[in-house]
Write a structure and sequence with these properties.
Length: 160
């Protein structure tokens, strides 16, 4: 009987330890998975502080980008990025966390609200980062997507 008690207790302790270790690993990985887009919001906010009618993206992502798009209210960033990548003949993977974290769980196209904006940045390897934000009226007021590449890194917000 005592032996059976020790085996059951050992199994319970082992299960609890395994669960705690697994939770710790998930927490650790989540800390490393913090996406770059928060830096993108800071970059755009700072650029808008300097000039309300244009943004120079030459320094975004430490200059490691090939093309990007800004989206105003009412646009569908995920759908547009799929279409734009195909038009450019590129393969761009839209990470599932874009839908989960930045578009309230929408994995398929969803329109931005009237006061929202979004920025998508594609690096030279075809990796996409996308961020959704509120409170930047010059971008939220864009009439449609505005895209550019490294050859012409200044985006005019004249459509606002």
């Amino acid at each position: 009987m005592r032996r059976l008690f020790q085996v059951v207790l050992g199994a319970i302790v082992g299960f609890v330890l395994a669960t705690l270790i697994n939770a710790g690993l998930l927490y650790y990985r989540a800390g490393w998975a913090t996406p770059v887009p928060h830096q993108h919001i800071a970059y755009v906010s700072q650029a808008l502080g300097a000039a309300q009618d244009r943004i120079d993206f030459s320094g975004i992502n430490d200059g490691e980008w090939s093309w990007l798009c800004l989206f105003g209210g009412g646009t569908q960033p995920i759908l547009f990025m799929r279409t734009e990548a195909a038009r450019r003949g590129e393969s761009v993977e839209i990470p599932s966390e874009v839908g989960r974290l930045f578009f309230n769980g929408e994995k398929e196209p969803g329109a931005l609200g009237p006061d929202d904006g979004a920025l998508s940045v594609v690096d030279p390897l075809g990796n996409l980062s996308m961020v959704r934000f509120t409170g930047l009226p010059p971008i939220a007021g864009l009439k449609g997507p505005v895209c550019t590449d490294r050859k012409n890194p200044v985006v005019s917000l004249g459509g606002a």
